[in-house]
Amino acid sequence: MTVQTISSGVTSSGLSVTSGNALSVLSGGVVVETSLLSGATMTAAAGALAVNVTVAGGASLLGAGEVEGQIAVRGTVSGVSLAGSSGDSSIMSIRSGGRALGVAVNSGGVEVVFAHGVASGDVVGDGGVQRVSSGGVVSASTVDSGGLLAVHSQGRSIGSIVRSAGLEVVSSLGLATGAWVVSSAGALRVLGDVLSGKVARGGMETILSGGFADFGVMSGDEFVYGDVFSTSIGSGGSQSVEAGGKAFDLRVGSGGTVVVSAGGYIGESAYETEIAAGGVLRIKSGGSGYAIEVNGHATILSGGVATATDVGVGGYEFDYGLTSAPQVGGTLLVAAGGAVSGELLLLEGGRAIISGTMSSGEVADFYAPRGTLELDNLAGFHAAISGFNTSGQRIDLGGLAFASGSETITWAQSGASGTLTVTDGAKVAALTLVGTYVASNFQLGDDGHGGTVITEPKRPAMTPNSPAINHFAEAMAGLRGGRDQAFVVHSGGTALSNAPPLVTAATSGR
């Protein structure tokens, strides 16, 4: 092997290094218009400069020196620094078969990875740009403050790390897998696809219209104008679903927040959104959500719509807009101006406070032995009440102050339902109950905070059309029940008539 050395202070131009030979450029040395043929090696020490280098397939350019101008790579480039010169950009083109390993792309430097080219472990600094063209692949790129990683159509980025004030942009049909935005003001902007991305606190990801993100982990901020699936939002993380944005299969943990703006949408029957304890959901006017499991806090603002929410034990849903067909095992508060449509299902221990409205044709259904329906706007409540048949169920009339002996109660049966009327002087509450009752079935009491509570300590006779019989028959037929609910009744056990669908099991030794 012949090794040619370019010493400090020496400039050499037009060198061609052939197979089996080597060129060593020492600190302070300069080479211009150099060609490395297949099998050739060039080493540029720190402080060395190479301008306009062609690296053929099978050739190598190594070292910690700086390269400028036009660098064409079909072989291997490792460890060098790419920078602009005198205000002009320097371009390193990684062509088919070419590899760039650990290249530092500095101010004025542009690294372009073409089809079948590969770059790995490169660092894109302030003013530097790394572009991934169709068919090109970059992996483990680090984008520092002021740097840009641009993934173009059909290009791919794997495992990139975007630091403070760095930016990664994924264009339409581009793909980023495992991108990690780790620092404050780092950003990932997506028109294409992002899989398994992670945004740390202070970082930002924007999924633009037509963009797609899947299996993301969010402790920073995500803005959604496209589609996102299976995002987990942790403490300090937030997701803003903007007009045209859709988010499915969300998991919002303690300290995480999701905000749905006008034209945004979250949830789907097959991809339920879960708001864990300590998590927060806000649906703004014009925003909507479907199939939301609330174990934390959900707020539906005026003009917002939530459909098929499932408020779990310890969960709170505050509704200033419209909630449709909610299931309540925690607390549902429908404020003045808010409304409930469809069937309101009160699960075990659930509490629904209605200061808004429920129209005639809607149903508030006691579906477990214990639950509370609090009516603080009697004039706006016109729904029917069904399943009211155990002493643990309460209808709280917030508009009627309780005074023992001053209130009267009457019942008027009409077919399969009737009207329960509670009168307190000039104040009258008339409620429609589904089932067969008599006035003596009901008892009035003090609700403990200034209102009147109705309980039903005496179970009504179960006629063929009574809600208890109907609930039991529907349960046995598997036609009734909340999502994913089933009770197992062992031999010798008892099933409540208003329980969810039953599964019977013969069990010995119990």
Q: What class would the helix/strand composition place it in? A: mainly beta
The overall pLDDT, averaged over residues, is 89
Number of strands: 66
From the N-terminal CA to the C-terminal CA, the straight-line distance is: 87 Å
The number of helical segments is 1
Poorly predicted runs of 5 or more residues:
460-469, 471-510
Radius of gyration: 34 Å
Q: Choose one word for the global shape.
A: rod-shaped
- Give the helix proportion (percent range): under 10%
Strand residues, percent: over 45%
The largest sheet, given as strand count, sense and whether it forms a barrel, is: 44 strands, mixed
Supply database-style keywords.
single chain; 510 residues; mainly beta; 44-stranded mixed β-sheet; 20-stranded parallel β-sheet; 1 helix; 2% helix; disordered C terminus
Notes on the protein architecture:
The chain has 510 residues and is mainly β. The chain is 2% helix and 47% strand. The protein contains one helix and 66 strands. It has a 44-stranded mixed sheet that branches. Strand 63 (443-446) and strand 64 (452-455) form a beta hairpin. The longest helix has 11 residues, at 467-477. The model is unreliable at 460-469 and 471-510 (pLDDT under 50).
Brief digest:
The protein is built from one helix and 66 strands. It is mainly beta.
Furnish the topology, listing elements before pairings.
Layout lengths: L2 E4 L4 E3 L2 E2 L4 E4 L4 E7 L4 E4 L4 E7 L4 E4 L2 E8 L2 E3 L2 E2 L7 E5 L4 E3 L2 E2 L3 E5 L4 E3 L2 E2 L4 E4 L4 E3 L2 E2 L4 E4 L4 E3 L2 E2 L4 E4 L4 E3 L2 E2 L5 E4 L2 E3 L2 E2 L4 E4 L4 E3 L2 E2 L2 E4 L2 E3 L2 E2 L4 E4 L4 E3 L2 E2 L4 E4 L4 E2 L6 E3 L4 E4 L4 E3 L1 E3 L2 E4 L4 E3 L2 E2 L4 E4 L2 E3 L2 E2 L2 E4 L4 E3 L1 E4 L3 E5 L2 E2 L4 E4 L4 E5 L8 E3 L6 E5 L10 E7 L2 E8 L2 E8 L8 E4 L5 E4 L11 H11 L9 E4 L11 E4 L5
Parallel strand pairs: 1-4, 2-5, 3-5, 4-6, 5-7, 6-8, 7-9, 8-10, 9-11, 9-12, 10-13, 11-14, 12-15, 13-16, 14-17, 15-18, 16-19, 17-20, 18-21, 19-22, 20-23, 21-24, 22-25, 23-26, 24-27, 25-28, 26-29, 27-30, 28-31, 29-32, 30-33, 31-34, 32-35, 33-36, 34-37, 35-38, 36-39, 37-40, 38-41, 39-42, ...
Antiparallel strand pairs: 59-64, 60-61, 61-62, 63-64
